[in-house]
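Q: Sequence in, structure out?
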Amino acid sequence: RVRIPLPVSNILWEHCIRLANRTLVEGYANVKKCSNEGRALMQLDFQQFLMKLEKLTDIRPIPDKEFVETYIKAYYLTENDMERWMKEHREYSTKQLTNLVNVCLGSHINKKARQKLLAAIDDIDRPKR
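A: Exactly. Output:
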C-alpha cells in the first residue's frame, strides 16, 4: 500500500471529475433526438452525479460543473438567445454546438432558424481555421 498525500489525491480527483464532466457534455452532444423531458432527466442525472461526488470527495467547487449545466440549459434557449449564447460560450466545440441546434430543430426552432444558427456556428468556427 502506498499512501497518497491529500494534495495529490485532490489533484487526481479534480482531473477525474473534470474529465467525467467533459465526457458527459460530449455524450449529450451525441444525442440525436431529445425532448424537454429528456433534457430534464439529463439535469436530474447530473444532480445525482454531483450528490455522489460530494460524498466521495471534498473538492469544492466541483470542476466544470457549470460547463455541463450551461450546456444542458442551452437547449431551452430561443433562437436569438441561442445565437448570442453560442458567441459567448467558445468553450464548446463546433460539434457540440451543431448538435445542440440540430436537437432543438422541431421542438422550438424551425428549419430557417436552424440554418441561421448553423451559419453562425460556421462564422464562429472560421477564425479557428
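The chain has a mean pLDDT of 87.
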